[in-house]
Structures are given as structure tokens and as C-alpha cells.
Amino acid sequence: MEVPEKIKFLSDLVKKVHSLKPNRIVLEIDKESIRKAFELLLENLGDTGFYLAVIVGTDHPDKNKISLDYYVITHPDKEVYVLRTWLPRDNPRIPSVVDILPAALSGECETYDLLGVVFEGNPHLKRGFFVSPDIYEKGVYPLRKDAKV
Question: Is beta strand 80-88 parallel, antiparallel or unpaired with respect to 118-120?
Fold first, then answer.
């Protein structure tokens, strides 16, 4: 599968392309290139040509990794693209995109609070965004599959 024509400008950053569902194309990108991908989306589609719907983090202890899926929906055609990257589970860090794409704020804060992913450069990260004090005071990230609450 190839990078769709509408977002061909991301081709140099994409390592793998596959379909998640008929209307969801997954583009796997190295974590170091996620910011660049969003810069290119803004440059080529403009700030009204797409939006970031959600960031989904998933723990994969069997692979010792955490996946991050950034769901991007383009306008006006409403195509759904998933920009996926993988982080090491023992040190999940990635550059934040909140300064160039403010819509990422809640997704980055939620993923930090629930999975422990650090979005470097996001000044708003803190425990307690979603998790109650009795959980975060124990240093537990509840969406980690080995979390003991």
C-alpha cells in the first residue's frame, strides 16, 4: 500500500502504510518525525484542511513498546489517517506538537497521565489530569497493562 495522493508530501517520513479499516489508513512514522509530519500537514493543507481528532496510546508489554496513534481527519473529504509511532516502554518520550497544533493538548496530557508518555516541550503535563490523587501518588499509570492499582 502506498501513501495516498492527498498526503503524498508525507512520503519521505513514512516507514510503513497499511489499512486499519476501509476508511482508516495507518502511516507508521519514526517518533523523531512526528513533529515534522504535523508541520508538513499545516504547510500543505493549512490549519483548516485537517484536524487532530484524538491521540490514542496503547501499551504493548509483550513488545516492550507503547504505540501512539494520532487520528487526523482531512477536510472537506473527511478522510481518516492514523499517524502511528512506537516508543520504548521503559522511556516513552516524544516531542510535543502542542505548540504548533493546540488541539493536541488534551491528548498529550491524557496520554501522559494514563500511560506515562512524556511529550517533551509541553509545559502543561502534570499528573491528575484524569487520574485521581490516590492513583498518581503511587506512581501508577493505569493504562499500563501491568498496573496494580
Answer: unpaired
Give the whole-angstrom CA distance, residue 65 versus residue 52.
23
What is the chain written as a DSSP string?
Answer: ----GGGGGGGGGEEEEEEEETTEEEEEE-GGGHHHHHHHHHHHH-TTSEEEEEEEEEEETTTTEEEEEEEEEETTT--EEEEEEEEETTS-EEE--TTT-GGGHHHHHHHHHHH--EEET-TT--TTSSS-HHHHTTT--TTSTT---
List, in order of start, the domains of the chain with CATH numbers.
Answer: 5-100 (3.30.460.80)
Average pLDDT of each block of 10 consecutive residues along the chain (149 residues)?
92 94 91 97 96 97 97 93 97 97 96 97 93 91 89
CA Rg, the chain, in Å?
16
Is the pTM above the cut of 0.90?
A: yes
